[in-house]
Design a protein that fits this description.
alpha+beta, BirA Bifunctional Protein, domain 2, 2 domains, seven-stranded mixed beta sheet, two-stranded antiparallel sheet, binds 3,4-dihydroxyphenylalanine
Length: about 350
């Protein structure tokens, strides 16, 4: 029996060397320790041993069992740590790979232009204010000296809503709102959206304007020219020439439009400027006394000037896209170019 035990021990240790998987280890365990296992069988035979043999063989059997149990345990641990290592290797992340660049968003080209315009005027001391896009006929027209029979009130130009409301056709109504809410002096610009029933290569039904208003004692037309010339030089460059042409606006008297030398041909004359060498960029004028009265300012006390410009138009002088509607088609191939 002693020889049998030693043979079992040797065979089991030998078999353990070849075990490569947890399943194989388990079958081997059953082969030796199971209910009908080799070691179990030998132990069952202990009953037939003589009194003298029993303690000796019993001791040996226990030793064999203990040493095999240890060997199985060691193999099990080795298999587990090997498995763990393989798993870690398989799941490893290669941190030396270059990262993926996130896609960066940018300001819309019209907003980029609007921000430049704002920056120039705020540096000159103008405050940025805003007003509602849904307006009343009073603020959009009447208070701006634009009587009911004025052609600008035509259904073809204005988006009318119900109850005398409309989408503002320009940012000028904010002049009145500011005068109603603050005392002179006033030095503001009003960036924001305006709406007109218009749709062609140079018009979209929604567009952006920057309105300006400066009111104080003894403000003159030459100050208006000074501010606007400085603005245009900063936006379009020192070489840019400007001219003021007489014009008519209901809310200013006298009124003018300001032209700059064409940004395409630099004044030579080309298709973009209708071969005149000039391009109109804004309307302006001295605030009409009627407008002061509508805003509860006393035209005997204060004078002022106002101006208004279209942002898409100015953006397009810079970017020269053939159809201004492209700005609002949300085509990333277009927008990514700015
Ligand atoms: N509101 C005018 C427009 O939309 C632009 C304008 C012209 C505004 C002259 C002014 C101004 O304040 O004085 O065409």
């Amino acid at each position: 029996m002693k020889a049998e035990l030693e043979a079992i021990q040797a065979a089991a240790l030998e078999a353990l060397k070849d075990v490569e998987t947890a399943d194989a280890l388990e079958s081997l365990r059953i082969e030796y320790f199971g209910r009908r296992g080799k070691l179990t069988d030998v132990m069952k035979g202990m009953g037939q041993l003589s009194k003298e043999e029993r303690p000796v063989i019993g001791k040996l059997a226990n030793e064999v069992r203990a040493s095999l149990t240890d060997a199985f345990e060691a193999t099990k641990n080795a298999l587990e740590s090997e498995h763990q290592e393989q798993k870690l290797k398989a799941e490893a992340i290669d941190i030396t790979l270059p990262g993926r660049k996130p896609a960066y968003g940018k300001a819309h080209p019209v907003m980029q232009t609007l921000e430049r315009i704002e920056a120039i005027f705020t540096q000159m001391g103008f405050q940025v204010v805003t007003g509602p896009e849904v307006e009343t006929e009073h603020y959009n027209f009447d208070a701006l000296n634009t009587p009911p029979d004025h052609p600008a009130r035509d259904l073809h130009d204005t988006f009318y809503l119900t109850d005398g409301h409309l989408l503002r056709t320009h940012n000028s109504p904010v002049q009145i709102r500011v005068m109603e809410s603050q005392k002179p002096p006033v030095r503001i610009i009003v960036p924001g959206k305006a709406y007109r029933v218009d749709y062609d290569v140079s018009h979209t039904p929604m567009f952006h304007q920057v309105e300006g208003l400066l009111v104080d004692r003894h403000v003159t037309f030459s100050e208006l020219k000074g501010v606007l010339v400085s603005f245009a030089r900063q936006l379009f460059g020192d070489q840019t020439q400007m001219r003021f042409r007489p014009h008519f606006f209901p809310f200013t008297e006298p009124s003018a439009e300001m032209d700059i030398t064409c940004t395409v041909c630099r004044g030579e004359g080309c298709r973009s400027c209708g071969h005149t060498g000039w391009i109109e960029i804004l309307g302006a004028g001295a605030v009409d006394p009627e407008v002061f009265r509508a805003g509860n300012y006393d035209p005997e006390e204060v004078t002022g000037f106002a101006f208004g410009m279209g942002v898409e138009r100015i953006a397009n002088l810079q970017f020269r896209i053939p159809d201004i509607r492209t700005f609002y088609e949300n085509d990333l191939r277009f927008l990514k170019q700015f």
